[in-house]
Design brief:
Layout lengths: L4 H18 L2 H4 L3 E5 L2 E6 L7 E5 L2 H12 L7 H4 L2
Antiparallel strand pairs: 1-2, 2-3
């Protein structure tokens, strides 16, 4: 007989991780991702001054930086901060 508690735990953790991923700002708000000089930029908004931006060596790192920047209240565009 096999103990399935470890498998059940791993399945639960996979579900929790997937839920956290789909709730990330870079997934929900789908910023524009583009090359900016020697780095990648994830930008939500019209420009870097008025929007939220994250930069990184790869698109994934730019999205991670974007997610961190989104969490800072002062960095969110006014239309999103009020919701």
């Amino acid at each position: 007989m096999t103990d399935i508690s470890t498998d059940a735990y791993l399945a639960r953790m996979a579900i929790v991780e997937a839920c956290a991923f789909i709730q990330a700002p870079s997934v929900l708000y789908r910023p524009a991702i583009f090359k900016d000089g020697d780095q990648w930029c994830a930008l939500y908004g019209e420009n870097i001054q008025d929007g939220v931006a994250g930069f990184g060596d790869t698109p994934g790192l730019a999205c991670q930086a974007f997610n961190m920047a989104w969490g800072q209240e002062r960095s969110r565009p006014a239309k999103e901060a009020d919701q």
